[in-house]
Amino acid sequence: MSDTPTAASPTPPAAMLETRDLARFFDVSRPALQRLLSREGRRTLRAVDGISFAIPKGTTLSLVGESGCGKSTVARLVVGLYGPTRGEIRFDGQSLATARSDPAQRSRMQMIFQDPYASLNPRWRVADIIAEPLRAFKLVEGRDAQQKRVGELLTQVGLSPLDAQKFPHEFSGGQRQRISIARALSSNPEFLVCDEPTSALDVSVQAQILNLMKDLQARLGLTFLFISHNLAVVRQVSDRIGVMYLGRIVESAASETLFTTPQHPYTRALMEAIPDLDMTGRSRIPVGGEVPSPITPPSGCAFHPRCPLANDRCRQERPELRPSLGAEVACHAVEEGRAILS
Amino acid sequence: MSLLELRNLRVEFPTRRGTLVALDDVSFSIAPGEVLGVVGESGAGKSMTGAAIIGLLEPPGRIAGGQILLEGRRIDNLRYDDMRRIRGKQIGAIFQDPLTTLNPLYTVGRQLVETITTHLPLNPAQARARAIEWLERVGIPAAAQRIDSYPHEFSGGMRQRVVIALALCAEPKLIVADEPTTALDVSIQAQVIALLKGLARDQGTAMMLVTHDMGVIAETADRVAVMYAGRIAEIGPVREVVKQARHPYSAGLMASIPPMDRRVDKLAAIEGSMPRLSAIPQGCAYNPRCPRVFSRCMVERPDLIPAGPTDAACWLYAPGAPA
Ligand SMILES: Nc1ncnc2c1ncn2[C@@H]1O[C@H](COP(=O)(O)OP(=O)(O)OP(=O)(O)O)[C@@H](O)[C@H]1O
Ligand SMILES: Nc1ncnc2c1ncn2[C@@H]1O[C@H](COP(=O)(O)OP(=O)(O)OP(=O)(O)O)[C@@H](O)[C@H]1O
Ligand code: SF4
Ligand code: SF4
Ligand SMILES: [Mg+2]
Ligand SMILES: [Mg+2]
Fold first, then answer.
1. What ipTM is given for this predicted complex?
2. Residue A284 falls inside a structural domain
3. pTM of the full structure
4. Which residues are within 8 A (CB) of B208 and not within 5 positions of it... i.e. 6 or more apart?
5. Which structural domain, as residue segments, surrounds residue A68?
């Protein structure tokens, strides 16, 4: 939304959020008895495996990638809902643990969840759901002031102040998602993690919400970590984009750079799978090959079983992120100049 | 004959503040092998229409008028048990909310095997093999290893694929799919859509597909219904509705699709918001937001009338409308 800082800027802008070598593993072993009977060991799922990024204040970083690649896990890590297995998270210059222990700091970050059903307490009225952060952080004193703020927030997301007295089950899926957006905005957070915030909304309400986000960013300098499968939406809101594959970032670039010159073979395949409105009746090309298992990831580059450019080196050696044409790409072919950009 | 037919369906919600009409005079039909896409404003009644068809309206919601026919037989007045049998075997449902379909206490495999053995003549071992097959068809990696996982151990998109497998594994004639691909990335989405289309083409399965994703609509649907405030605003062939909508609401909706090929400062959106069910304006429900509103729109409610290749509920297509 704002301009991405270039290498030439005198001092790098302060990061609102920074991660270094962030990882989170899950133990997905079968119960001990079954394991014993079938003589299998423990199984570890590497949902996020060594991710580093920084989001400068007032900008938006988007994470994209296949279902199951670890986006929501990153989101949950950076707001402290999961503890990291490895690595470091810093929020506005302090460690996340320190920030989370201070209510004043905690109120500066909020999250909009992928699943609006699971995130709203069904026994609370909408007014109480939205006002909960206001009360928890003692931001607005007095019933009247609270009611007024709740009404404003509902109007901002295209609902009515009269909806405040209803319960979540009285709303459609998209209306519930808007309630969770209103709730996340209620404490005037400076950093907002949005996990698929608009995928339950029709395109017109989606446009209203995205315009609201852009407007808040322009006026108040909000910082966003944004997750979406809809690449058209991602293009509209992002300053930078990280493309994830099996728990790692495989390409990271300024938004327009990524869309105009995608370099990693996976990024390019992802762009080709975008649905095209003009193709009525025809099919698009899905990324070929099997989605690998995150429990037993392929050796070397995890994308090699599906990559048209894979060779022996790819099967043995895991590529690291390296600068390439104004982006960062983890691919041997790109590094060796074998990946011809069309 | 149509596989599914809705005739003047009306759904009401009695509340303390009076009766809300959530669906008002909704009629359409779907032929075998046909995919009807349903789009429209959030809260317009798309999920409600699907819930009415599969007999799972949440009380106090109730069908207050009209009929629902499956292969010519009424199913809106069946007893709960009869409807439950139809729901498993003849109608497969994919809900917007995967958590309502999946039981968090049972493994994914157990839930699939149960559905398969209830509706198909297979023994448990065959059913398990079939379950793994379905998980593979919906794109779950390492299906044989992960079949014994619990729903919470799957990502959002993977849970949704399990729900899709559950709806399809009994091989129903009609699929009611409410935002089946919303949680899926473009690549898995393409795979699931190819699967659903294949079922429609090869097995003659009919499908009502509710989605906000116009790309999915453009690729999958044969016809599209656009809903607004509990009614159908427009219905017609997919290309006509997406490319050249006749109803001003459909046109505004299509104009709000974010562009893929460039970034814009402010996205186009329809001004204002849909009226609450308790405050639907007189005349055309879209009149407070409509750029083409005229006098008749304020007093008389439009029904669907032919508007070229589509049908639109709009007075612009009635004789005597302003040019
Ligand atoms: N609590 C958990 N226990 C075990 N495995 C988990 C848990 N949470 C996530 N996973 C696994 O971690 C991987 C990453 O999941 P995550 O939810 O982060 O994916 P995602 O990128 O958000 O996918 P989607 O686009 O489908 O939402 C998946 O393989 C998932 O099954
Ligand atoms: N239990 C209920 N009591 C009262 N009103 C309800 C109830 N459930 C739903 N509604 C209302 O009925 C209308 C239709 O809801 P429905 O879920 O069908 O919308 P939808 O078109 O599926 O929207 P979305 O795209 O957001 O999922 C909404 O305005 C909603 O507020
Ligand atoms: S490292 Fe090799 S396998 Fe991996 S994306 Fe690059 S070319 Fe393909
Ligand atoms: S009937 Fe009138 S208000 Fe309604 S959509 Fe048509 S022109 Fe607009
Ligand atoms: Mg997710
Ligand atoms: Mg719905």
1. 0.88
2. no
3. 0.91
4. B4, B30, B36, B38, B49, B50, B53, B174, B175, B176, B177
5. 15-108+189-261
